[in-house]
């Protein structure tokens, strides 16, 4: 069923925290997404696959309609292919069918993309729902097709789709609309579900979300969807953040470390919801388990849930005693929170590395200042310098932030 048009809301990114998850929209004001070199990152992935140095080779796949055998490296951009158009035309001629290349974990090839996507998700944290408990990922879809290679399905991620080249249309249906065709135990939030049918097999007209170069399309995890294009080459960058995570293993690990065996419930939305469960165990064990999960949570926040990070260059921290200041390599370089189970301790996390320090000045004021830094901003260290120079805790925080790629000497 095609050709039906329903008015699609246009939402400014600054207003999305209030509307996040409410429904599909065209998104305006996702500043900085145009600066991400989507094709450049795909070229880097192509080079890594051809060289055999791709960290996650299974993350890159070629799909064709109808299915033909495809040799992965051949269908990724080669060394001389500096522009998307000629690359896509070469692949189209070679395959002579509708095709697409999907490359997951694209942020592992680009610190710029990682920092941009991390920032988007951390800015969305200021919502009632908070940061989703599941993981985040960036992926790139390049191709040339009329109907997308995947039929109607639902994922567990909210998706921001930036159209870098060509035209993309997402056909979307609210969960309830097609729930009758899904397995009985299927619900809107959990699990990937494929219906195994195309849009032509559905009577209900879809919401059609169409974008050209520079547009951003957004849809929440609960929507059934499939993709369409105009048969011409297209390229898109997707930021996906999964809402749910099975917290069972996280809590089981925390309880084990606290000396308890525990069967935690599956599929809780956030670690916060599950914190109440800790009260059923003894106070000491509960507080140790809560503390362990809390550290996991702050660590996750420091990456905005990314499991796969780019390789930050290995480096030795500068002598902070001699440095005038510290420069943020990314917005909100450091995440931190007082430990819920021990108010005398602070958990600090920087791009996935985490540690605990004593909760006292001047570390607290340094963390507050770092937490609020914009990308590129420089913070003078004079305020933290005493007669003996910078205190050891302050230097420890700066060292970890530097090694994790979040700050430079300024
Ligand atoms: Fe999908």
From TrEMBL:
InterPro entries listed in its UniProt record: JmjC_dom
Domain JmjC per the UniProt entry, residue ranges: 105-260
Residues passing through the membrane, by range: none
The protein's name in its UniProt record: JmjC domain-containing protein
